[in-house]
Design brief:
The protein is of the alpha+beta class. It has 8 helices and 4 strands; from the N terminus they run H-H-H-H-H-E-H-E-H-E-E-H.
Length: 163
């Protein structure tokens, strides 16, 4: 009888210890804050090593949008980018971010968007001071966060730039 009682007490105490040591899962906000802190503290080489860990944003353009954008001439795209810059649009990005790279490719690559994109790996202080969310890609129009789709035509409409 004593043995059964001792076993029951040991099991009860063991269960309590297991439950007491389990941490509650972090909230989504806590995860985002920690990721922002980690990314902000990383050196450029470390960011390159985490490229596989970055999740591609789900807001990708439709196939029709991709096909019609491919037809745009380089001169027309340069003019469009220039108009976006004139309308005070800024895209905070990183070359190690797959979503950022895909977005830059819609414009014709990073060379085309040199005046539009701020690369946070090269301009950390600017990104740290000006970004609203701390997550790339982030689009701002005249200092205000743009939260719409990353579609070239919709962006153009937002600031009255013709594509």
């Amino acid at each position: 009888m004593k043995t059964v009682l001792i076993i029951a007490v040991v099991l009860l105490v063991g269960s309590f210890l297991v439950l007491a040591t389990q941490e509650t899962p972090p909230t989504e906000e806590e995860i985002r804050r920690e990721e922002a802190t980690i990314i902000g503290d990383m050196k450029e080489e470390e960011v390159k090593n985490t490229e596989q860990d970055i999740i591609i944003d789900k807001e990708t353009p439709s196939k029709e949008a991709e096909e019609s954008e491919e037809e745009l001439s380089e001169a027309a795209m340069d003019e469009f980018v220039s108009c976006l810059v004139d309308q005070k649009m800024i895209v905070y990005a990183s070359k190690t971010c797959p979503a950022c790279t895909m977005f830059a490719q819609e414009f014709g690559g990073y060379d085309t968007v040199e005046d539009l994109f701020v690369l946070c790996s090269q301009e950390r202080e600017k990104c740290g001071n000006e970004m609203k969310t701390g997550f790339v890609p982030e689009i701002q129009i005249d200092g205000e966060l743009y939260e719409g789709q990353r579609d070239l035509r919709l962006l153009g409409e937002e600031v009255e730039c013709e594509l």
